[in-house]
Design brief:
The chain has helices at residues 3-13, 84-94, 124-139, 153-164, 196-213, 233-243; strands at residues 37-38, 44-45, 100-106, 146-150, 170-174, 225-231, 261-266, 272-279. The protein is of the alpha/beta class.
């Protein structure tokens, strides 16, 4: 196996989400040993080592967000007198109870001729798209908890229009969700080739956004939550790959329309499901764009 191929495979998992990779030996099947759990038919299932990258070899890393109950307690402080009962009680206290519904909205069409971010405002069609997206979100009849949006002009304007349809829902602006180059795509494309330093800088920030916002509910959260994130195509595509533990360098294989809705569900046990990806079925065909 070539070094380049090995490095590419090693990058697929991003176990804890690091965007800096080291060359590691890959391709070996995990050893079957005492940690292997029997399958219903009686055969043992190979269990990847704790250090295995998330998603490598098709394995699901159940502690991908570092919020598995066992990872949240200090076993050294285990009460020796009560033993397993005490441990079980502490584990139960750390378990998530609620489901998080995350709606990732791509900003509407904007002025591509703007030199600076402040000049890249929504076009008239873009404003119509935002109205349609806001109306669609409102029609779902959900009690949205918050709208977190990129601080870039086109995302901020999209948020302002959407929020008119969701009165009372608080808005939070963040630089973490700004557009950028998350990771070098594979396969590469000829029409878009950022400098390596851009991947290095933007990738760390976008990965930080993923770690900060995409995870199972806190153990203190009692009810399911519904949250809206208004940001950018590159950010959304990267988040989807990371959340599903797909190779993150495949993010550019997906396309998202302006004003589209992507719906991720994160269950209390950490399982993640993609309900919709880039939905714009609520828009008339003549209002759909992808710029």
């Amino acid at each position: 196996m070539s070094f380049r191929r090995a490095l590419a495979l090693a990058a697929c998992g991003l176990a804890g989400g690091s965007v800096l990779f080291s060359a590691v030996a890959v391709g070996k099947q995990p050893a079957r040993g005492g940690d292997a759990e029997p399958r219903p038919g009686g055969s043992a299932a190979a269990v990847p080592p704790a250090s295995a990258p998330a998603g490598t070899g098709g394995y699901w890393d159940s502690n991908w967000d570092r919020r598995e109950p066992l990872a949240l307690i200090n076993l050294k402080k285990k009460n020796q007198e009560t033993g397993e009962e005490e441990l079980a009680s502490r584990l139960d206290h750390c378990k998530a109870k609620a489901t998080r519904h995350i709606f990732l909205i791509r900003h509407s069409q904007y002025n591509l001729d703007g030199r600076a971010d402040k000049d890249r405002t929504l076009t008239p069609l873009g404003r119509e798209q935002a109205e349609l997206t806001g109306h669609r979100l409102a029609s779902l009849g959900l009690k949205f908890d918050q709208i977190i949006h990129s601080s870039m002009t086109r995302a901020t304007e999209t948020t302002e229009i959407i929020s008119k349809h969701l009165p009372g829902v608080k808005k939070i602006s963040t630089d973490l969700l700004r557009e950028g180059a998350p990771i070098e795509p594979d396969p590469p494309v000829s029409h878009w080739k950022p400098e390596a330093v851009q991947y290095y800088e933007d990738g760390a920030r976008i990965e930080a956004a993923f770690r900060n916002f995409i995870h199972r509910a806190d153990a203190k959260q009692e009810e399911d939550s519904y949250e809206i994130f208004v940001c950018h195509a590159n950010v959304i595509r990267y988040i989807v790959c990371r959340a599903l533990q797909f190779p993150p360098e495949g993010w550019l294989r997906m396309s998202l329309n302006n004003g589209s809705i992507t719906h991720l569900v994160i269950r209390p046990n950490g399982r993640v499901a993609l309900r919709t990806l880039g939905d714009t079925g609520f828009m008339p065909p003549d209002k759909i764009t992808r710029t």
